[in-house]
Model the fold of this input.
Amino acid sequence: MVVDGRLRDRRAAPARRPHGSAAEDEAHELASSWLREAGLEVEVDPHGNLFGHVPVSDTVSDTGAGPVWTGSHLDTVPHGGRFDGALGVVAAIEAVERVGAGSVVVFRGEEVGCIGSRALVASGDPLPRAFLELHVEQGPVLAAADAPLGVVTGIAGYARGELGGRAGHAGTTPMTGRDDALVAAAAEILRVQDAALAVDGAVATIGQVEVEPGGANVIPARVRLSLDVRAPDADRLDELIAAIGFEPDYRVEPAHFEGAARSALADAVAARGLPVIELPSGAGHDAGILAAAGVDAAMLFVRGLAGGVSHSPDELSAEEDISLAVDVLADALERVATSR
Done:
């Protein structure tokens, strides 16, 4: 299979491709060669995003309704795997080559805040009328449902901020007289967990704990807790923020997929006799940035193996699931590209 071969290509850049690195540049150069091999016209926009367009004389679409894009990203987290992002790029190349319509897009810097797609939207440059993104699920839902594919309903919104005692000698201050900031932080962590459990579909993560002054024999005087909260819609995000009681430093609103592109993916899945499993994405994606800008965006998830692990060298999807996903993506691309 072409997709699996490209994922395993010996020329491919290393799996660790942080944004702004030479490895990300190398991956874009390799993808450019694949685009040319597929007979596509290569373009790089001012933000570094890579495109492969079907030549106008070759396209099967003549609706005049505007372009349709499909693709993903090639940058990774520092210790990422070979499927997150890259799978969506190589699948897009095969789908566009097969259908003879649409454009492949490879965004820059998705893992560090969707830099390429945000820059494109902010520039005011023309956007597509529709965008399809294929991506590994990054979770265990499809595997638990014994389903190879899932149609994404939308992307959870998220908010980030911090939660934040006297210092004293660890050996001479009695337990009854202590004001231990770390003990208070431990109770706060449990409270945040309970708040998230009480809101359906919401999650809350404390991924960083900074303890001051940080001495082994000094009672902690101050503790900073990073806080990342997510929910499928704005109402539940507001509810969770209020329950925890913090002021977010950064917030991204949920994105909903509910147009013709999502319907095309669902129809393409159903046409193959598969159940149409619908699920939200707890992780951000370029499709969410385009959807928030008014593009008819949609996503197709591919079942992840190894417990759905992602952002890890252990992430894995089965070759037969990938093959099926490419078929569905190509089918949906043709449906959208030829519709008015």
User: Anything to note?
Assistant: The CA atoms of residues 62 and 338 lie 7 Å apart. The two ends are 32 Å apart (CA to CA). The longest strand covers residues 222-231. The chain has a mean pLDDT of 90.
